[in-house]
Amino acid sequence: MISSYVRNWIKILVTSNIKELILKVGESDSSFDSLPEELFVVEGLNVLNLRGFKLGLPPDHGIKFSSLRNLILTDTYLDEQLVQALCASCICLEKLRLSCCRGLATLRIAASLQKLKTVWLRCLPELQIVDIAAPNVENIYIESQLWNLQVVKITCCKSLKTLYIVDVDVTDGWLEDLLVNQPNLECLSLSGCLKLQKIKISSDRLKYVALSWCLELINVVLETPTLTHFRYECDENLPTLKLMKSSVFLVLKLEFSLKNILDSHWYSIIDQRKNKMRLYAR
């Protein structure tokens, strides 16, 4: 537990109109400490980076982070009402990063966050629903914990360029709808998405695609004339890969187990791309 001395020190900092506060206590399995309520009314704060605390909505609902641009919370217990209040009041927020935080079942990032560019969510054990509608988001990273995340909605994000999805049971239909509505996507990485079976990607903007440990995947079709890097990793059965349209600069990187036997289909791809292909066998 943080001492009264540390609490008083935080209160002094608050009155000093600080611009950046990085405060980390304890380990991930320790009890959570509450922060002084005075912290939530620092209007000039630009960066808030916390670890090991319990954050709850102040009794008067007073949150005045009108200048906050970067919010990073790690090993923190979050009150769902507080998170929604933060999303409503932090109109200048550019980066939101939540890692190994507890207490959050639903996260809705509204269209009102016009300046938000990056959303980074990792290992939030109670999180089941993510709904991102911020129109100018460019980078999204979502990693579920033990596939607990049930719903991922990414809408109105026409500026999205980079998307990483890890250990989320997204479906073929979900991916198809996503790609149709993200015309500016340049980088797509899917890892541990166990419900994916057939992937068809048609895009004239994608430059990088990575697929790893999507164990049920049987067919991949790429119509991507600007694609320069494709990476596939898995120790299970290799899917069928069809390059309908591809760049002459495309580099393929395949990582698989020696127990997999490449068929004539894969040998033909290797022959066509032998100068731009890297094979890693385990």
Short description:
The chain has helices spanning 4-15, 80-89, 172-180, 264-272, and strands at 20-24, 33-34, 47-51, 53-55, 70-74, 77-78, 95-99, 106-109, 118-122, 129-132, 139-143, 151-154, 162-166, 187-191, 198-202, 208-212, 219-224, 229-234, 240-246, 251-256, 277-281. With 282 residues, the protein is an alpha/beta fold. It has a 12-stranded parallel β-sheet with strand order 1-3-5-7-9-11-13-14-16-18-20-21, with no helix packed on it. It has a 3-stranded parallel β-sheet with strand order 2-4-6.
Describe the protein in words.
- The chain is of the alpha/beta class.
- The protein has two domains: 1-160, Leucine-rich repeat, LRR (right-handed beta-alpha superhelix); 167-282.
- It has helices spanning 4-15, 80-89, 172-180, 264-272, and strands at residues 20-24, 33-34, 47-51, 53-55, 70-74, 77-78, 95-99, 106-109, 118-122, 129-132, 139-143, 151-154, 162-166, 187-191, 198-202, 208-212, 219-224, 229-234, 240-246, 251-256, 277-281.
- 25% of the residues are buried.
- The mean pLDDT is 86.
- It comes from Capsicum baccatum (Peruvian pepper).
Secondary-structure-based class equals alpha/beta
In angstroms, what is the radius of gyration? 22 Å
Specify the number of helices.
Answer: 4
Write down the CATH class of the largest domain: Alpha Beta
Order of helices and strands: HEEEEEEHEEEEEEEHEEEEEEEHE
